[in-house]
Design goal:
This protein is 48% helix and 8% strand. The chain has 7 helices and 3 strands; from the N terminus they run βββααααααα. Helix 4 packs across helix 6. The longest helix is centred in the middle third of the chain and has 20 residues.
């Protein structure tokens, strides 16, 4: 994975990835910065698993609860939640929205690291197309750079407020 653009910014001690058989089709976060990916995956997929799983949880739910509730009331979010693929479904709306946000964050990072992909085409088909919030958050990430001093929760709340129109 070191051949990917900008990957030299990471130290080997930042994260431990255990490559195992039969982990597919998901990456699995163990604890902290430790996770499992499948040995059969190409480097880009392993990197995608890493960037995705390490973002869980992306925010303190108590600090974004109102925004999550507002997003949950959007008909297109509620419809995607109700029609999830049972193999990748989330039991709670809170978990579903978190997964959409984490997916956008992970894709944003792998694109920055040089993985060649079309994020919007990916979101359209990934997990049966249930990542309906991910393309909006991905675009927000691209168009509104987060200040490093700003808490992620404040950034997320601004994103959710931007969808009120």
């Amino acid at each position: 994975m070191r051949r990917l653009k900008n990957f030299d910014k990471f130290d080997n001690s930042d994260c431990t990835v255990f490559l195992c058989s039969f982990a597919a089709p998901h990456g699995i976060k163990l604890c902290g910065n430790n996770l499992i990916s499948d040995i059969s995956y190409p480097d880009d997929t392993i990197l995608s698993n890493v960037t995705h799983e390490l973002f869980h949880p992306p925010y303190d739910l108590n600090a974004v609860r109102e925004s999550v509730l507002a997003l949950a009331e959007k008909p297109w979010v509620a419809e995607a939640f109700a029609n999830q693929n049972p193999n990748s479904g989330y039991v709670s709306m809170e978990g579903f929205i978190e997964e959409n946000i984490v997916e956008a964050l992970g894709v944003y990072v792998v694109v920055q690291l040089g993985v060649k992909m079309d994020p919007f085409a990916y979101f359209k088909v990934h997990d049966g197309g249930s990542h309906v919030l991910s393309p909006y958050f991905y675009r927000y990430l691209c168009e509104h750079q987060k200040d490093s001093a700003e808490p992620f929760e404040a950034y997320f709340n601004r994103f959710a407020a931007s969808l009120e129109m």
